[in-house]
Prior knowledge:
The strands form six sheets. The protein has a nine-stranded mixed sheet with strand order 1-2-16-10-18-8-5-3-4. A four-stranded antiparallel sheet has the order 9-17-11-15, with no helix packed on it. Strands 13-14-21 form a three-stranded antiparallel sheet, with no helix packed on it. It contains 22 helices and 22 strands.
Amino acid sequence: MSHPLGVVPEGNLLFSADAKKSLRMRYDGLGSFFYRMTDEQIIELLSFLDAETLIRLSGASRVFHMFCTLDFLWRDIVLTICDDAHQSIKFDTTWRQTYYRMRQPQKESFSFPVVRVDGYPSGFLFKQWLCGNIRFERDVPHFYKHQDIPRIPLEEMTVERFVEEFERPNRPVIIRNAAAHWPAMQKWKDDAYLINECEKIQKTFRATSAAASRAATFSMKDYLHYATTVKEEAPLYLFERDFAQVPALKADFEVPQFFREQNLKTAVSTKANGETQCYTHQPDLFSLLGEGKRPDYRWMVIGPASSGSLFHIDPNMTNAWNVSVRGRKKWIFYPPTRVPPGVQRSEDGADVTVPISTSEWLLTFWSYHLEARHDPDVSQRPLEAIAEEGDLFFVPHGWWHMVVNLDFNLALTQNYVSTSNLSDVLRFVRDKRDQVSGVRDRSEAIQPDHLYEEFVATLQQESANGDSSAHKAIPAEQLAVHVAESRIEFDINRDEQAPTNVLKYPSEQSLEVLPSTRRENLPHKSNTAQHQRSQSALQAHRRRKLMKTRHHYSSATPNSNSHGAGGLLPPTTTTKKAKRVHDDTDEQDSSSCDNSDISGELAQGSQPSRRSKHKKARNELSAIFASSGIDSATAVTTSDTAADVAEVDNSGFSFSFF
C-alpha cells in the first residue's frame, strides 16, 4: 500500500537508498526551526491556528502544504465554527471542502491541487492514513473466523431460560431474529422515511469522536450523507439519547420480552451447598425512579463502516441489550477479570487509556488478541461474534467489549438494572459516585451524591406496596439480601472472602467459577454528552487528542500486521477520563491480564505506549523554543491570528524552503 501523497514510514529509511534525500526533504520543507520538532509537535502547533493562517502557511513549501491540508485539522475548525454559531453541519466530501463550502456556498465545486511529497518520512502520518483505509479481510488475519458466543433462535429462547442461563450467570448471548417483527426493521432502511419523520419536529442529532475537538450537530439527512461519504480514521459516531422524541421512531420498536416481563419466579442456587430458593426476577429497576430522574439508558446509534467503539465497560454496572437494525457488528469481549491488550486503567478505574480508533487497535494489538485466545485458562479467553440484522445481543455487566461496524450501521441499545445485577449496581452507585454517569447534564435527574439513597428508598417503598402484579416489587427479604451484598467490603486480593458467581464459557462444557466481587474494582466508562458542555474540558480534550503521540518502530522490529510498511505500525494511546469522555452506551463512541493487581500498568503482552498528554508536549516545545533563544511564553501560546504567527517569526525563525 502506498500513501496518496508519497509519505513513507520512518522505518523504511533504514533500507532505503534515498534516505538522505528524504531527510533533506524534511529539513528543506520545514526549515531549521520546525525540522527539530516531531510531526506530532508540528500538528499541535497548527491546531492553534485559524483557517486563514493555515491557508497562508500552506504556501510556504510542499511539506507545509501537506501538514496544513490534513483533514482532521479542518474538521476541528468546522466543528468549532458550527458549535459557536449553534449551526448543524452540512458535510461535503472532505472537511476542507466543507469549510470552503461554508464560506462560498454559491460556488458549485472546488478543485484543490494534489501536492506530493514523495519519500517524506513520517510514521505518524502514514499510520493515520493506514487506519482510515483499513480493510478487515486484508489487514486483520482471521477477523471473520471466530464465533464464540452462543447464537440461539428466538423460538428456542424463553424468558426463564434467558434469565437462568445468561443474565444471572452474566454470560453474553445472541438471540437470533429477536427484533425481526419490529416495524423499524423495514422502515428504517429507507433513508427518506427517517429524514421525513425527523424533519417533522426539526430534530437534530449529536455525534462525537475520540479524535474530534467537539461534538457535532447534524440533521438526520446531513448525518446519513456524512456517514456514507466520509473516509477518516475516527469518524463522528452518532449516539442520540432523545431519538424517541420523534413519535414515529418511538412507535417502530418495542423493548424485547426478555427485558420487560415482570414478577418472573425462578429457582436459583444461592449457597455453596447447592440449596435453592425462590427468586423473583424484575427488569429495568431504574424505571422506578421516573423517566426524567433515572440515568440515561436508551440510544439510537449510527456510524459508517469501520467505525465503532473501543474497549469499555458499560456505565453504572448495568447490563445492556443491542439490536442492529441496519448492517452487521463485530463484537469482541474480554471477561471482567482480564484487561484487553492495549488498554490501561488507573487503580480506581476512573482513567482508561485506549488507542484513538478501532482501526488502530486492530492493526496494532490484534496479534496479542489472537495469543489471548489460546490462554491455558479458558475463563480468561476473549470471545468474538458477529451480530446480523435483527439479532439481539445481550451485553453482561462488567465485561470489556469493543464493537466494529462491518457495514453502515444503525442500531438501538438500552442499558438496564434487573435483580440479576442489582447488588453490583447498588455497590457501584454507593462507592463510585464520582464515576456515576448519565445524570450530570440534566438538572431534573437524581445526582450521583443522592442516587444510591433514593434508589434504595424507592425499591423499599415499591416492595412494601408491591402486592399487585403490576408493580416491579422485589420481596422484602430478597431486597434486603441485595442491599446487604452491596454494603460488603471485599479485599480483592483475598478471594476466599468473596462469594462466587458461576460464569459459563461456550467453548467448555464445565463451569468456571470467578469471584463476582472482582467486578467492583473494574474501570467504568461514562457519558460524553454529560460533560462536553464544559468548554474548558473540551479544549483540554482537543489538545490531547490532536497530540496523538505515536511510537516509531523501525523495520528491524516488524509488526505482524505491517503490510509492507517497513515494519512501522506504532501504537497510539489517548487518555480517556471515565467520568468525562464517552457516551453511556453498551458499545462505547465513546478502548490482558487479571486485573486484581492492575495499577495503571499496560495489560500483559501489549506493546509499550505513552499517553498523549498536552502538558508533556508543551514542555517539549518550550525546551525547543528555549534552546533557540525564543520566549516560550510568547511562542507556545500562539493564538489563532496571523499577527501572532508573525510575532513568533520575528523572534528568530530561520527558514530555508524550497
